[in-house]
Amino acid sequence: MSRSTPQEPPALVALTGSSRLGALARRLAQAVTAGVLAEVQQRDARIRAVHLRVFASLENGPARAVAVARLLGTTKQTTGPVIDELVAWGYLARRDDPADARAKLVDFTGAGRELAEAAAEAVRVLESRVADEVGREELDRCRETLWRAVGALEPPGG
């Protein structure tokens, strides 16, 4: 999550019908992320995939930086600089946490909410393309199956 020049995304791995679940999941995630980034970067070319993940972590409301990091599976020290960028660019703001005067909550600004909504709309468009290709019922079954697979592999309480 360095602040260096963004690198090219990794090349997509050639997959076959017998590819492993993890490889297929990564390929799908890469395709969705690339599609969302293409849309969002039309508004701000500085946005990277990690910024989108921070936005997604705030979709249920403001959160402490440590909670954002936990949702992203990383540390506050790693997530902090990314949040700092989004604050500096005017997409996020820090405000006092009413539950703890020593803590700060991270929340969207108006511009940040607009950008997050643009990202969410890009996801809806991509999902609609998938539904057009495989059918809505098949997409819903796939989503359900993937959630069950995730549940089967996550540790209890995870």
From TrEMBL:
Domain of life: Bacteria
Residue stretches making up the HTH marR-type domain: 38-139
InterPro entries for the chain: HTH_MarR-typ, MarR/SlyA-like, WH-like_DNA-bd_sf, WH_DNA-bd_sf
Annotated protein name in UniProt: MarR family winged helix-turn-helix transcriptional regulator
Protein species of origin: Amycolatopsis albidoflavus
